[in-house]
Amino acid sequence: MAGSSQAPACATASGKHYCSFKEEGGAAYPAEVVAKIAQYYRYPLQSLFGTALSHQVMPQLANDGPSSGSSGSSSGVGGLVCEATTRLVRVGWAMNTSGRWLAVLNTDHYQQYVTEVLCAQQANSACHYVPPCYQATCTQRYNTQKLLVVDPAVPHRGPFLSEFLFPSCCVCHVRALAGDGAAVKSGGGSKTYSKATPTDQRKKA
Length: 205
Prior knowledge:
Helix content: 10-25%
Distance between the termini: 60 Å
Number of helices: 4
Mean pLDDT: 77
Radius of gyration: 22 Å
Shape: elongated
Order of helices and strands: HEHHEEEEEEH
Number of strands: 7
Structural class: alpha+beta
């Protein structure tokens, strides 16, 4: 099985299942080994990344309203049910969905970024704008993303794709009350509540 079960020092310090390329103990990233692998497989990588991506620059966060920028804090009137902070991370080490640590391929010519969206409040903080009679808390959600990686312990294997989990949004989770429908989740200032169907209404009549 590719990768190591041992977490790198950067992950031990941060408590996350991934580390950025230069921050958070980035000195542990095997830059020299990764660069040699990238040089050896330069022709397949050039074909894979394409000319437009071979000299990629760090992307910019979209200015899409109250949640744009590095913080999810709202501006102007209204706000978010659960606030979040957003940043772009150039990943160094990461633990895949199989629990194995791998080095994400990142060099001067080939760069890979992910968008990190973290709940701004502490875990299980109360949602904004939700009446206290509801047991509503902000919950971190994740999505899967595939990245091109290498296993420094087996460099001859070359680059390959692996799947990872990254924090993607902060949602409001409302626990179902006794006799109610399923738990409700909301995000970005909107809420969706379960409603009785016509059949249910007839039963109650």
